[in-house]
Design goal:
Length: about 140
């Protein structure tokens, strides 16, 4: 039963926090310490965040793509870990990585393995197509 609860909780987290920007709900979903175990290219790679730090990460990440949306493709649970493959898209409405806003939709795919403490997330290990995002940003620059 806990696998099903964690999968549902992760889906709700992606929808409300990452896609919806419900920053005040972060303590409901995130453990007091959240470890970014592996996330190459992410400015927070290797850091341990408290709720305020996690909120800053979400706000900073959403700023250039305020309408961003994560769509889970597949979710697998095993004990204290839940893996999700996902599609992401967002409209480039703010400056990011030296690229001025283009108004174009940017897309990416990835896979994230989240750790859980009970029903709250305590960290992740992620791989995603940041090179593809860079290439899209570069193609839209002009």
């Amino acid at each position: 039963m806990q696998d099903a609860q964690r999968k549902a909780r992760l889906t709700e987290f992606l929808d409300r926090i990452w896609s919806g920007g419900e920053y005040d709900a972060i303590p409901d979903f995130i453990a007091p310490q959240y470890v970014i175990r592996n996330d190459p290219g992410d400015p927070w790679h290797g850091q341990t965040l408290d709720h305020a730090g996690f909120r800053h990460r979400i706000e900073t990440s959403r700023a250039p793509f305020p309408d961003q949306a994560f769509t889970p493709v597949s979710i697998l649970a095993d004990g204290d870990e839940v893996a999700v493959s996902w599609h992401w898209k967002g409209t480039h409405l703010g400056d990011v990585s030296g690229f001025t806003a283009s108004g174009k939709v940017i897309k990416m795919t990835g896979l994230t393995v989240y750790g859980f403490e009970g029903l709250r997330l305590n960290g992740h290990w992620q791989v995603c197509d940041r090179l593809g995002v860079f290439m899209q940003l570069q193609a839209n620059a002009g």
